[in-house]
Specification:
By secondary structure, the chain is α+β, with helices and mostly antiparallel strands. The protein contains 39 helices and 26 strands. It catalyses: Ca(2+)(in) + ATP + H2O = Ca(2+)(out) + ADP + phosphate + H(+).
């Protein structure tokens, strides 16, 4: 079986090829209900059509831009059309421009028409918006009424009746319905009204029950996925409203909003550039052009859905929602659905194999029963006499054969994966993890390596300046009064002024006031910490800084590891400020600021002293930043270019970023679970090692290396280093990408990697599971990830791993349970048909059993919450057998017991239970049916744990499981005691009820005994890291 599955039903968790997707579809055979089975599977034809549509739209956008650019070369001036008139609706609302005009100008990038309207300021005036204060919240409803909402038209969700209709498309159910209708007609003709209709009506009622329960389950899943999909698209945007900077949902953006953009952001709507520095935008998602576009005052147009590659700035929103090109394009993005997960594909293969076996048994059962019937007629010399009753018997044989097929083809297997994943995704949302791709949830259960960032993931990301070295002195930073007194008494006013101006000028953060008038700092944690430190000092340094004109800004990025700015000083001249990674800034300096604030040459001894200070701060787990400045000679240099050397060193700043509570325990949990944790950070190696030790990541025999050294190592040297590598500091995004590639390809590890920056996108995409940070992460990082960690917390990553393992184990439990039911139901009916000529389980009874093992079984077992024990076993390997030897042991053992019990009841039940009288045959068959159902009920409890004897642990905490158990037993009582007319059962005595329950309950001790049987397994190999893999299988029983 495993060879067949591997050959035909093997797909990658990420970036699966079109050939692999087509291959397993071609291998699937005997699908009862394609519309339901493949509802959560990608529609390749629709996807191809959507790709064609998307390419057409991109081509039109690209051509329109080229044509417009060419046309504008020959137009000297443009004036607003003389016949341009405002509609009454727009005029009455007090606005001065139509939505279509805004859309047209931005879409065609018509700069001359923009100028004719008065430019960005003219647009703001016509939209009744202040470029400084932004939109007033009280005006938002009116603006949305005129200019629309920032929402893309979504396909309406399928109504409930459509799910009922899809459930009815089951081929075997349709055949059974036809049989039932014929049975009613023939029955009434032979047995009269109403007795003749009972068999047929019973089947129809059972089919209706199956369809309704199936439809309800599918509908609830669909609602969950709809909510999750909406959450995936919800992006928080920084805007200025009511005079204050605030964060709003992308869905709440309106025309006229002032939006703040920075590296990695998605442009949330069409708009115009107001101000900013070095903004370049990637428009490939919209136009297909890979060349980045520079956005500035000359080319102010920004299009929705594009990504900011570099720089920062502000934009005025001019069009939203379906008025943008992105809105039209988004309609095609969801066409075709997501790729199916490896487990879904594998279980389609299992269903195909079992379906073939089931079909063979169904055909054999029908042939045997029909042959016996014909032979009996021949023996009694009635072969030439055929009546309606005979036709009804043959019809019943056929109905039983079809029902065996219904039970045999486990249509619910692939859908159980979807159910389990939907349940896990919903729970993970509550645990602050947003799963963007279904397959990531199950792949995370196999992860044996996590490459994690330090800042914000292992640490709190709540930073505070606690130390500073300036003018040859190191100072501890305390309260505002203490800090001011200590620094002001030890350094000159000139030196302090230079330090504070270097912070206020060279920052991306802003000091803003919220609605309550409270002062807040908006920006990255590092920038905020520096600004908080600078604000401790009395004086008007910030006000003075605002007077200086900023000429050029080079924003921080993870490659250069520094941020620079050139300002025009009020008294004349230009000054460059630079801050960033300590060793990089120190290397750019040849002078140092003295106590009186003057620039003096930097000696080698001072350089060594500063390096010692940096390492000392870092060893105390502080992030270190250096600040520098340079007075530029405007006669020799260009203010538009920022110098790369000859700076004056100002200070070393030590920033405390405490380790998150619970991270050390979470790392221990990972190590116990066979998951190695590696820290990959851009920080100083001494800081990284100190934090890694505090977290329990770096051990005495572990290796810590810097990015430049890692890049310079040969392949042979890396083979010795990587198994012991625990910390990589001063790394570039490309280093992280290279590490992930090596771990996956050379060491066959299943790698999860975290990332927050735009440049982390390649590593996130390359990893088996890409984990983007929800708070610190850019939209580019999130878009390339599989899971978004909403609280940026490492503990949440461990929770995701636990749920991933839970999904895999839950599906294995369900498969074990369903295969046991399949084996027993098929063998019981087939053997009985061969020996006695009749099947003890009727069509109605088999339909009820099918619902127990399919929909209800999946609901009970596939939604079990994870336990802590899951993180005390090794991760699931890449190429392990899905149906393990442990599962086969349990399936075979339980099947043998149930077949023996049902066989004894069938052939010796009357004698054992002293059944006499006219109804003894009906009582015996009802007893067999009741015992069979209770065997499944108790086996379902057995299946809660495939290895441990205590299967009751946590059972009463799982309300879904308990609800399914109670409802199954309750409905079984109703069927036996009250629906006998339709289900062909008779009420049982208390003694027979007790016997049925006890025979079913014996499954529990049988299950315990089976778990004591050792299962031979291949010897655990040693891991490439040197440690032995954790015990599995019976060792954990």
């Amino acid at each position: 079986m495993e060879y067949y599955l591997k050959k035909n039903f093997e797909v990658e968790a990420k970036n699966t090829s079109e050939e692999a997707l087509k291959k397993w579809r071609d291998a699937v055979w005997l699908v009862k209900n394609p519309r339901r089975r493949f509802r959560m599977v990608a529609d390749l034809d629709k996807r191809a059509e959507a790709d064609r549509k998307r390419q057409d739209i991109q081509e039109k956008i690209r051509i329109a831009l080229y044509v417009q650019k060419a046309a504008l070369q020959f137009i000297d001036a443009v004036r607003i059309k003389s016949d341009y008139k405002l509609s009454d609706k727009v005029r009455d609302a007090g606005f001065g421009i139509e939505p279509e005009e805004l859309q047209s100008i931005n879409r065609s990038r018509d700069a001359k028409c923009l100028d004719a309207h008065g430019g960005v300021k003219g647009f703001a005036l016509k939209l009744k918006v202040s470029l400084k204060e932004g939109v007033m919240s009280s005006n938002v409803p009116l603006i949305q009424d005129i200019y629309g909402y920032n929402r893309v038209t979504e396909k309406p969700m399928k109504p409930f009746w459509m799910f009922v209709w899809e459930a009815l498309q089951d081929m075997t159910l349709i055949i059974l319905m036809v049989c039932a209708v014929v049975s009613v007609g023939v029955g009434i003709a032979t047995e009269g009204w109403p007795k003749g209709m009972y068999d047929g009506v019973g089947i129809i009622l059972c089919i209706i029950l199956v369809v309704v329960v199936t439809a309800v389950s599918d509908y609830k899943q669909s609602l969950q996925f709809k909510d999750l999909d909406r959450e995936k698209r919800n992006i928080m945007i920084q805007v200025t409203r009511d005079g204050s900077r605030q964060s709003v949902s992308i869905y709440d953006i309106v025309v006229g909003d002032i939006v703040h953009l920075s590296i990695g952001d998605q442009v949330p709507a069409d708009g115009l550039f107001i101000s900013g520095y070095s903004i370049t935008v990637d428009e490939s998602s919209l136009s297909g052009e890979s060349e980045p576009v520079n956005v500035n005052a000359k080319n102010p147009f920004l299009l929705s859905g594009t990504k900011v590659q570099d720089g920062s700035g502000k934009m005025l929103v001019t069009s939203v929602g379906m008025m943008t090109e992105w809105g039209r394009l988004m309609l095609t993005l969801s066409e075709g659905g997501d790729d199916e997960t490896p487990l879904q594909v594998k279980l389609n293969g299992v269903a195909t194999i079992i379906g073939k076996i089931g079909l063979a048994f169904a055909v054999m059962t029908f042939v045997v029963m029909t042959a016996r019937f014909v032979i009996v007629k021949a023996v009694h010399h009635d072969i030439s006499k055929w009546s309606m009753a005979d036709a009804l018997n043959l019809l019943n044989f056929f109905a039983i054969a079809v029902t065996i097929l219904v039970v045999a083809v486990p249509e619910g297997l692939p859908l159980a994966v979807t159910l389990s994943l939907a349940f896990a995704m919903k729970k993970l949302m509550n645990d602050r993890a947003l799963v963007r791709h279904l397959s990531a949830c199950e792949t995370m259960g196999s992860a044996n390596c996590i490459c994690t960032d330090k800042t914000g993931t292992l640490t709190t990301n709540h930073m505070e300046v606690t130390k500073i070295w300036i003018c040859d002195e190191a100072k501890d930073i305390g309260s505002a009064d203490n800090t001011g007194n200590v620094l002001e008494s030890s350094i000159s006013e000139n030196a302090l002024s230079t330090l504070l101006h270097s912070i206020f000028h060279n920052t991306n953060a802003e000091v803003v006031k919220d609605k309550d008038g409270k002062t807040n700092i908006m920006g990255s944690p590092t920038e905020s910490a520096l600004l908080e430190f600078a604000l401790l000092f009395q004086g008007d340094y910030m006000a003075q800084s605002k007077k200086a004109q900023i000429m050029k800004v080079e924003p921080f990025n993870s490659i250069k590891k520094k941020m620079s700015v050139v300002v025009a000083l009020p008294g004349g001249g230009h000054r460059a400020f630079c801050k960033g990674a300590s060793e990089i800034i120190l290397g750019m300096c040849d002078k140092i600021i003295s106590k009186n604030g003057e620039s003096v040459p930097l000696s080698e001894e001072q350089r060594k002293n500063i390096t010692t200070v940096i390492n000392g701060f870092a060893s105390e787990a502080l992030r270190t930043l250096c600040l520098a400045f340079q007075d530029m000679d405007t006669s020799k240099s260009n203010a538009d270019s920022i110098p790369e050397d000859s700076y004056t060193f100002i200070a070393v700043v030590g920033i405390k970023d405490p380790v998150r509570p619970g991270v050390r325990e979470a790392v221990k949990t990972c190590l116990r679970a066979g998951v190695k944790v590696r820290m990959v950070t851009g920080d100083n190696i001494h800081t990284a090692k100190a934090i890694a030790r505090e977290c329990g990541i770096l051990t005495d025999d572990g290796v810590a290396i810097e990015g430049p050294n890692f890049r310079d190592k040969s392949a042979e040297e890396l083979q010795d280093i990587i198994p012991k590598l625990q910390v990589m500091a001063r790394s570039l995004p490309l280093d992280k990408h290279k590490l992930v590639q090596l771990l996956r390809n050379e060491y066959q590890e299943v790698v999860a990697v975290t990332g927050d920056g735009t440049n982390d996108a390649p590593a996130l995409h390359e990893a088996d599971i890409g984990l983007a940070m929800g708070i610190a992460g850019t939209e580019v990082a999130k878009e390339n990830s599989d899971i978004v960690v909403m609280d940026d917390n490492f503990k949440t990553i461990v929770t995701v791993a636990k749920w991933g393992r839970s999904v895999y184990i839950n599906i294995q439990k369900f498969v074990q349970f369903q295969l046991t039911v399949n084996v027993v139901a098929l063998m019981t009916n087939f053997v009985s048909a061969c020996v006695s000529g009749s099947a003890p389980l009727t069509a109605v009874q088999l339909l009820w059993v099918n619902m127990i093992m399919d929909t209800l079984g999946a609901l009970a077992l596939a939604t079990e919450p994870p336990t802590d024990e899951l993180m005390q076993r090794p991760p699931v390997g890449r190429n392990v057998h899905f149906i393990t030897k442990i599962m086969w042991r349990n399936i075979i053992g339980q099947s043998i017991y149930q077949l023996i019990v049902l066989g004894i009841l069938k052939f010796d039940g009357k004698r054992l239970f002293h059944l006499h009288g006219a109804d003894s045959f009906s009582v015996l068959n009802t007893l067999i049916f009741n015992t069979f159902v209770f065997c499944q009920v108790f086996n379902e409890i057995n299946s809660r744990d495939m290895e441990k004897i205590n299967i009751f642990k946590g059972m009463f905490d799982s309300w879904v499981f308990m609800m399914v158990m109670v409802s199954t037993v309750a409905f079984q009582i109703v069927i036996v005691e009250f629906l006998g007319t339709f289900a062909e059962t008779v009420p049982l005595s208390k003694e027979l009820w007790l016997a049925s329950v006890l025979m079913g309950a014996v499954s529990l001790p049988i299950g315990a005994l089976l778990k004591l049987i050792p299962v031979s397994s291949i010897e655990c190999p040693r891991h490439h890291d040197g440690y032995e893999q954790l015990p599995s299988g019976p060792d954990l029983a």
